[in-house]
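[AMINO ACID CHAIN]
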Amino acid sequence: VQLQAFGGGLVQTGGFLRLSCVASGITISNYIMGWFRQAPGKEREFVAVVDWSSVNKYYKETVKGRFTISRDNDKGAVFLQMANLQAEDTAMYYCAAGQILRTGIEEPSDYDYWGEGTLVTVSS
C-alpha cells in the first residue's frame, strides 16, 4: 500500500496550492480519506476529512472557508485545495486513509495508511 502526496511548495501569503494524494494497493472507496499536517516542533494535527462518497466533509476550524477537500474514487485520489494561505499553514502535509475511525476523525492513530508528506511553506 502506498499513498503518494505531492503538490506542496513555496508560496507567498495569500497564495494558493493544490495538494494531491494518489493511493495504490487499496481501493480508496472503502476508506475515509483525510489530510493532516505537522509543523516543526509541533504534533501532527487534523486538517480535513472526506467520507467514502464525499457526502460529509469536515475541516479544522482555522482552515474552514479556505481549504477544500475532495476525492476521485475512480482515480484513487484525494485532493486538498488551499487558498489564502497564511504563515501558520506552513507544515508538512500528509494524506491518510482509514476504514473505521474509532476515536474520531481528528485522531491520527485511527488511520490505517499514511503518505510520506509534501511540504508547504508560506512566506510573508
